[in-house]
Write a structure and sequence with these properties.
- About 40% of the residues lie in helices and about 20% in strands.
- The chain has one domain (about 10-195): NADH Oxidase, CATH 3.40.109.40.
- It is elongated, with a radius of gyration of 18 Å.
- By secondary structure, the chain is an alpha+beta fold.
Length: about 220
């Protein structure tokens, strides 16, 4: 079971749209939300490994019978013989905590939402550590999710089905491609026998590049 650490105050504050160092009021909001969240949330994740075959149209995950379309995922998995597909969630308890916080105070709700956004990233980091503590590989890529670059967000449903995520961790997706519970992530990690390219800048593959008020690069 993944044990959650206290969130980074600066990271949670960035999700809140805070520029520079957060003041004492923001810190207290984040610390209170973080304490409540970590006491109540039990994160879960699931993964599968598949042979990866590069095609003209994208990448075929052979064992999952799933085609990942687009040029960006082909670049991401270039030189990779296999890929790990995983999904992680903070569970429905996170959504419940955000709703409960909103009943009494909008600021508390915002803090809880942003703390949970930071926590799901932490869960993904810890899940990746656990996965590759078991799956021994020479090299691996960084996490690439549907919606990055030209990898369609509509692939969320197929990824979750391939992972049997609804039964195993209670994770589904709506017809609008929104994951339920909301604080959830799906990702693909390539496995390679040779060194892989470094991860690009945080905003390089984002479709909101130049428009997002939360991005470090976009605020420069």
């Amino acid at each position: 079971m993944i044990r959650l650490n206290p969130v980074s105050i600066s990271e949670a504050a960035r999700y809140m749209g805070v520029k520079g160092e957060p003041d004492d009021a923001v810190r207290k909001l984040i610390e209170r939300a973080d304490e409540i969240a970590r006491k109540n949330i039990v994160p879960k994740y699931v993964y599968r490994i598949s042979e990866a075959e590069l095609l003209d149209s994208g990448v075929m995950l052979v064992n999952l019978g799933l085609l990942l379309t687009g040029n960006d995922i082909k670049k991401h998995l270039s030189g990779c013989r296999k890929a790990v597909v995983f999904a992680a969630t903070l569970s429905s308890q996170a959504d419940k905590l955000i709703r409960q916080a909103g009943v009494t105070d909008v600021a508390d709700a915002l803090a809880m939402d942003c703390v949970c956004s930071a926590l799901i990233e932490q869960v993904c980091d810890k899940a990746e550590e656990e996965i590759f503590g078991v799956v021994k590989v020479a090299y691996r890529t960084w996490r690439f999710s549907p919606g990055y670059g030209d990898l369609p967000i509509t692939l969320q449903e197929d990824l979750l089905k391939a992972l049997n995520a609804q039964r195993r961790i209670g994770l589904t997706v709506t017809s609008e491609n929104i994951m339920v519970p909301s604080k959830s992530v799906t990702a693909i990690i390539g496995i390679s026998d040779v060194p892989v390219k470094d991860k690009p800048g945080k905003c390089e593959l984002c479709n909101m590049r130049g428009k997002c008020s939360f991005s470090v690069e976009c605020r420069k």
